[in-house]
Amino acid sequence: MKLKHANLAVTAALLSMVCVQGGASIAKQLFPALGPIGTSTLRIGLSAILLLLINRPPIFSFNKKQWLYCAIYGLGIAAMNLIFYMAIQRIPLGLGVTIEFIGPLFLAFAFSRKWLDVIWALLACLGILLIVPWQNNSIDIIGLVLAFVAGTFWAVYIVVGGKVSKIMDGRHAVSTGMLIATFFIVPFAIWDGAIMDVTPSLFLKGLGVAIFSSALPFSLDMFALGRLPAKTFSILTSLQPAFGALSGLIFLGEFLTGMQWASVACVVLASIGTTVFNKEESVKAEVN
């Protein structure tokens, strides 16, 4: 991997996180009117329309393998987003993002081959343990479980995204994946019924969520996944809790304790460590 490509991929991953957490803050403001299912449907559906119009994927020319990977990728997107929104309806955004990160953290352990990789993963794990308010009986256990399940689908999203980006154009994969995710989530929206309460004002907010939480970050993720190892991308995304906590504080007034901020620092350090280490590996590879 060339160093320039690695730097661009890391930048894309960071921009993706800024977008998705900012979009999540907007989305949470829609929950009182639309609920997590209606908000998630609006986000995914509008994202799919935008991406299809912009990228125009040649869906009729895909082979069976491409369709299979796109289908799994799309299901992962739908489940990850729907369950995560259900989680942050019950718990603070920063806490939800950090618990959800267990999925990428598991990948970091699974793909680790060197002791230094394990150290960064353990540091991120310590951060997750610190952010959970163990002494707070008022914390919503269902919200924590939902965030954990969302993290499982986040891991699926990372693995399948890396594979699909190698067998087809990343833009076409994202567009098709979002289309499949829309078909998957619409029945839930019809059953829930809240989507029928969309007003012009809510629609515009939903469009903002679609752009910043799905269309833009998923495209950036696909660019990064095609140029970074799954292990590197997984630990790099440990910055998500920091962005989530800051976004929740700035836009939603959600405060974390000192111990929880310390946990955010742990996962940030883990992210910086793995990024710097992989840059050094890239430089050595270029020299050799």
Automatic annotation (TrEMBL):
Pfam families: EamA. It is a multi-pass membrane protein. The keyword Membrane applies. The chain crosses the membrane at residues 37-55, 67-87, 93-111, 118-135, 141-160, 172-190, 202-220, 232-252, 258-277. It is found in: Membrane. InterPro entries: AA-Vitamin_Transporters, EamA_dom, EmrE-like. Keywords: Membrane, Transmembrane, Transmembrane helix. Residues 142-274 form the EamA domain. Signal peptide: none annotated. Belongs to the EamA transporter family. This is DMT family transporter.
